[in-house]
Structures are given as C-alpha cells and as structure tokens.
Amino acid sequence: MKELRNFIGGTWRDPRGLKRFSSMNPADGRETVADAPLSGRADVDLAVEAARSAAPAWRTLPAPRRGEILYRAAQLIAQNKRRLGELVTTEMGKVLPEGLGDVQEAIDIAYYMGGEGRRLQGETVPSELPNKDCKSQREPLGVVALVTPWNFPIAIPAWKMTAALICGNTVILKPSSETPACAAALVEILAEAGVPPGVVNLVFGSGEEVGEYLMSHPGVDAASFTGSCNAGERLERVLAPLHRPLALEMGGKNAIVVMDDADLELAVDGAAWGAFGTSGQRCTATSRVVVHERVYDAFVSRLAERAGRMRLGNGLKPETEVGPVINERQCAKILDYVRVGKEEGAKLVIGGERITTGELQHGLFIAPTIFAGVKPTMRIAQEEIFGPVLSVIPCTSFDEAVSIVNSSRFGLSSAIYSRDVNITARAEKEFATGIVYINASTIGAEVQLPFGGWRHSGSGHPEAGGKGGAVEFFSKVKVIYRDYSGRLQKAQIDREA
Length: 497
Fold this sequence. Notes:
alpha/beta; Aldehyde Dehydrogenase, Chain A, domain 2; 7-stranded mixed β-sheet; 5-stranded parallel β-sheet; 2 domains; 26 strands
C-alpha cells in the first residue's frame, strides 16, 4: 500500500484535516492499493493560491519551451510504461494490455501537445483599410480545474493536463477517489519532467466536498470535467451564474449497426470488444447492437458463443480477457439493470450474474451479459449502464437502424458494419454522434483528432487534438488590429459609396 499526499506548489504535503480514504484492488477486495487524504476546502484554497502564483511566469514562458517539458514527460511516461500499466490494472481493474494502452494514450497526447507548442496558431487576414493589419492569437484562460474519472486513470488526466499546460494555463487536478495512486504517479512524472512548482497541483477528496468547491472556486478561471451525466449537469447549473467556461465529457449509449451484408465474424469481434472490453466501463462502450433481421439470429448465436468463452479474472494474468467492475456500488447498479431488462421482457441470452467462485470470489466480476429481443424504448436500450451488458435490437432496414441509433438522448459514438460503401457513406452523415466508426467497434479513438459527443454526452468542447480539439477550449482568442497609417481610419465608414 502506498500512502499518498496532495501535491501543492511543487511539494507533497499532508492535508489540513486528518481524514483519509483507501483505493482497493477490484479484482481482490482484500488488497489495498493506496491510502489518500480526504482533503477539504482549505486544501483547495492552498492549491488555487499556488496555481495563481505560478500563472504569470508559466504563461509568459514561450510555448515551444512548455512543449519541451511535455516531451520530457512523454519520455518519462514511456520509460515507466510497464510499471504504470500494472498500476492501472491493479487499481482500476482493466486487463494489462488495456492498462498499457491507457498509459500509451498519455504518451501519445504528451508528444502531440508538446508539438502544439510550435503550432498554437491564430490567423492573419487582410484589412479593408490601407496601412493596417489584422491578426488573432491564442491566450491561456488562467487557472483551470480538472476533475477526472476512474476508468482511464492515466489517459484522461493526461489528455486534460497536457492540453491545458501547452496553452499556458496552470492546473489543479482532482482525480477520482477510486484511482488516486494512478493520478499521483502521473503528477510525479510531470514534476520530474520539469514542470515548475505551482503549475500542476493535485488534491484528493470527494467530488461533493472537493470537486464542486474546486470548480466553483473564485480563483479558478475555467473547468473541465469527465464523469457521469448527473454530476456534469449539476456542474452546468452551478457554474452557469459564474459565466465560467466548462467542458463536459459525460455518458453514452453507443450503438453498432450490423447490416445483412456485413462480415459477420468481424462484426461479432467488434461487438464483443466494444461491449466487454474494460468490462463495459467506457463512455464509448458498445451498449446496443442494431442487427438486420436477416442475420439477427446468426449474429446473436455467434456473439453469445464468443461471450461464453471470455475468461474473467485478475487483469495481470495473461489469459484474462475481462476484468472486474470498479466497486460494489457499480456492481449492484449493473445487476439491477439485468433485473430491469428481464422485467421489461428482453431475453437474457447469457450472463447476467456476479461470479463469486474460485479465484474470483474476492473480486467484483460480472459475466458478459447479452439481451436479445430488445425494443428500442426499453430502459436497457436507453439508459447508460456502464458495465458488461449488451442489448441486441432487430431492424428491417438501414433507415430503421438510423432511427434506433439516434433515438438515444446521448450522442457520443456509433459504428456500422457493412460492405456497401453507399450505406456506410450515409451512416457517416446520418448517425447523430460525435464519433462514427466504419467496420470497427465504437471504441478506439486516437489522440490526433477531437474526442467528444453531442447532446447529453457532452458540452460540445471536445478533448484531445486536431482542429476543434482541447486546445480550442483551453485557450481564448485575442484579436489585434494595428494601424500604421498615421491617421484616423474608420472601418466600414471610410469607403466610397
């Protein structure tokens, strides 16, 4: 067990209070991974003060120099990839290849955002008046509060912090209480890479006591949150009167469409990976599969056979394909949705139970679960479950499939399997989601493009890179007009009729 402390002003320090909490290994509840401080408002105040003090020097450090620090961080994360990946698996539960992938995302985004230090572009455009020029440039927001979830405990904090830092902001990270050790390990590397004291601060604690107070703190200039819809929508209400920029990445009810001309084995692989990878605990996890009636029975049969062969266990074991869910509360929620699905009249094809025998008896393992005969209006087809539960819905045409995909209040990710290029081209246009995959699952985003959803999946401020990505949120645009004519000129007025 590792004993953690807050990181404020470049120093690891104890909280003002004495309360602490522990993170547990979800694969074996007998193992405590870390002990962390249950911080309070006084600790947040200290972190905000440190971030504000460090802000002037950091914002004036040339962006390419800030990028060099992120390059060093990327190198250090890469050197520690195995150790960090094993920590992700131990504290969060995902299987080791996914834990290593979580860390690889942090490496990728640190390199990408380091490069943005030489690409923080504005624009220069012609003026309508002589001897005058017009340009825009990017400026940092100031002090940014970041609240991150447990399901990607290295990648998501890295997505947010690297984007905020390269834009010249100082940050305060409040990670999930389920995965404090992962956050501490990442911040430790950033400090080793040369991030100056106060530029990155880390405060542990509850979302209610610490997270909300941090995001609404008068010394904070902007906030970014990834987590549940309920928490995100509450933050919208709290921060709206403050006129504070807020980026939200929330839930999903992501669907794969399988047309009758699809490569069925490929579609089964994609559905199994999307639904049961990370034990279904991704915002982009496949929660629905909409299958053409001509191949529906064959698809359900093959998918059930595939799910039945999946090996549950501790993610550090090489043979494990599906790890545990994160905690008892989430386990109970998932099993309650299984009950709801049965009561709604869906057919439980496989799974639907917690496994408590043998080596799994001390963990939080739920068997991969498939419901068939699901109607689009059922709760299990509309509400986010965040677990290894998949609803398979029949359709008679592509148009009906589109209607089902778009019937959700969410709009994060979608996918289609079809050999018809015309059908897949229509899917690109007609699926009302921020991300669309063609002949691939609903998971697998890459850092060089924006990541974010529509409607209740987010606030419209994407994460990661590319045009419209996180740099656009973590910076503000300043427009500059320079008149060197030596006389008063009036735009829109000084022109001939």
